[in-house]
Amino acid sequence: MSFDKLSFQASWREYQERVLAELDTHLDDDHLHIVAAPGSGKTILGLEVIRRVDQPAVILAPTITIRNQWIERLTSLFLPEGEERPDWISKDIRNPRFLTVITYQALHAAFSNEDIDEELQDAEDEAEDQPKVIRSKSVDVIALLAEQNVNVLVLDEAHHLRNEWWKALIKLKAGLVKPKTVALTASPPYDVDFKEWQKYEELCGPIDAEISVPELVQRGDLCPHQDYVHFSLPTKDEHQKLWEFKKNTAGFLKELSENKRFLDALSAHPWVRDTQSHVKDILDDPQFFSSIIIFLNSLGFAPPDYALNILGVRAAEVPGVDPKWLEVLLSGVLYSYVDDFSEFDDTLVAVRRELKRIGAIERRRINLEDTKEIKKILASSTGKLKSIATITRMEARQLGDDLRMVVLADYIREAELPSGTDDIGPLNKIGVAPIFEHLRRESIAGVKLGVLTGSLIILPKDALGIFDQVVRDNHIDNSHIRFSDLAHDKNFVRVHIKGEQKQSIVHLITEVFNAGGITALVGTQALLGEGWDAPSVNTLILASYVGSYMLSNQMRGRAIRIDPSKPNKTANIWHLASVDIERLDEKLKSVFTKEILRPEVFDPFDDIQQNVGDDVRMLQRRFLAFEGVSYEAPFTIENGSKRLALAGTKWTNAGVESLNQSMLARAKERNALSHTWSNGLHGSSPKPEMRENVGSNYAPQGFVFFETIQYLIMTGLITAALAIAQILSGVRGVETLAIWILVGAGVAAVMIAPKAFKIFRLYLRNSSLEKSITQVGWSVLETLQFMEHIKTSTQNLRIQSTQNKMGVVYCRLDGATPAERRLFLEAMGEVLGPSENPRYLLVRSSRLGGISRVDYHPVPNSIGQKKKNAEFFAKRWERYIGPSQLIYTRSPEGRLSLLQARTQSFASVFQKKTDRLSVWE
């Protein structure tokens, strides 16, 4: 028995040829770890590696669909035409053969002596379709595999591993004798901490090759594509619920601010009454102490001088109250430190009762903005049904019979289907069945609707002829297939399939879809969101709530595959988001005297300058998972949502409608996508590639003086000019005009003076690192080399940094391995970011004239775990940047410094922020 009798029946892609040419080198450490986008041919590459190693193997896949796909690829692409499937392939870990293909869950179940109903393994609904688990007879899995001499493990999308599945896989790998491990993934868990990454790399090995989406588009292995967003407003009922919560919350906070007993309780707290005697306790929870000071200060009660000294700020520098600070305050008063307020127990009971009434308490935690209920209202808003219909109508007009649209949702919601023609009512949930039903009711011309899930399959009756032909072509026994009319619409049929043929249904419906019997297919992300292969898909609507790095990337992969039958294919990918444009903090302005919002100009990373709800924030997180081409010239390819050009949006009803119309207009320009990608792929270097950068909006001097103050001056002058313009029509004479111009200048000066003075004073008191960011990079790099986390020779490494006109500074490391680059960028993000809770701090002091300046920089966690590494970093810092003091923050003195770092830091005042960016350059 041997794999070498097989041979690949098609042509290799360039990256596949490169990996295979270097296979022996990659396997020197018994690991091959490939990162490549969905649709890049990882499955075929894995099969060829197995064939060349030519030893018994086990393939582990995250879902049944992907498990079956491995077997289908082997039989269709590696066997001669007409050859039957070999009998040495097994899908049962308890009965392994030369090639055993199973799911991770099946492996875990075997180690746990359990049996699972694999037909229901990929759950698609909240309360149904859950795997049935029963106890099974004990079996020694490793002994069975050893009998087969298994020496190859293929881990497909190992990022999926849950903790218990991970343990089973580690046990399997340890039980075999130095197996060769082949790890294939589109989405490595880059967002885990360093220890988790080490665990992942120990299992999968270091990354040997990383193939990006732009590289594959450039080579013609993926099609040109673009992401669009359609924003929806909550329905009338949903808006009423949101409004009621905010109204109740604002009313509660107004009453709280006027509750003399509550204010007396805060003022009488030992930390406030006798701050000096409770420094140690305060340093253990500086956030709670700060929240008391901020709350009292916002109501006009000046904080004690000693309290300000601990925080390291002046009274004028205490930030305004906002919902997050109020959550910290109330959580501490009502739960964490409730014993300190025993004298005011009756008041706290009333406060707690009111918070429960308005729904702002979740598991002993106060949530004034994004409660679980609020998030659910936005995520599952049925306003998205209207968005889906609008998109479908536009795409159908543009593509006609060529439309191949897929809508992916999280849940089936079969109960939302009417039971008959007399049962057609409003749709109250988002899911597969409601989406199908809404589109059915819209009766969009030319659209042929279908549904494909594990338990609900619907075909248009006109597609039955194509379905029958597909069944015959695939030599399927149709005796186990039956149809029944849809109860409320005889133009559709439900498909019922039993027995072993059930595993074929996904393939059969996919073939009907490819053939045009269905042009708009609605399904679940659990079944179709990963591993499903339908190259004809040219429009994808993500109606899923998923915001995770991995699944969002996988779902996009369904649409961006090339279609051999349509070489000019392009794909539109639509994301949905429900926006909440009524802001709670605006309501709080009427309650608290101090300004709540900081100037938005100081946060250039945020392309959406307003809190419009958790659904949009999840969308922004989703966009960090993949790269795409920008909407506007000069065309660039990068990750994140900035390329969507949302920065100028006015988040009003009219603004949202205008934005949607703009998105639809852009999406119609499919013919321009190839040209747009071609321009973006030129890059800025002779051999462009995806490069990771860490960016910091550290408010450098140039930004402060040439952007911020210029902005303030222009704002003042424009406002003054508008005021003057209203009265100039009645002014006569040069002298009178000159007087009015002087008045206008005076008005402008008065308007900008407070903020300009604050900025100037902060600049004098603090300094900035941007001019030294390359030196900071060398301090980090040499320390990581000292720790042997970066082993690439220094002569092969180069640190690049640049600053854009908005003051955002970018830094990257060239020449390192992907893992080394990731570690470097993570450390740079920490040292340039806000001081959270590092073990060590670097305090950097300087003077400008007679004014002392100070700034604080966290020692990255990967470095600060050991004192000797932190000390080495401090020495490198002193060499490259200048003198600084290394402070251990776990001591009382160190905790005080950490507290002051959080409140006094120049960067903190300017909303210091770092971000990880991927750019094609």
TrEMBL record:
Q: Is-annotated flag, keyword Transmembrane helix? A: yes
* InterPro entries registered for this protein in UniProt: Helicase/UvrB_N, Helicase_ATP-bd, Helicase_Restrict-Modif_Enz, P-loop_NTPase
Entries under Gene3D superfamilies matching the protein: P-loop containing nucleotide triphosphate hydrolases
MF (Gene Ontology): helicase activity
Indicate whether Lipid metabolism appears among the record's keywords: no
Which spans are transmembrane here?
711-731, 737-757
Pfam families xrefs = ResIII (PF04851)
List each copy of the Helicase ATP-binding domain by range: 23-206
What keyword terms does UniProt attach to this protein? ATP-binding, Helicase, Hydrolase, Membrane, Nucleotide-binding, Transmembrane, Transmembrane helix
Q: Which domain of life is it from?
A: Bacteria
Please identify the protein, giving its name as recorded: Helicase conserved C-terminal domain-containing protein
Classification from the root reads: Bacteria, Pseudomonadati, Pseudomonadota, Alphaproteobacteria, Hyphomicrobiales
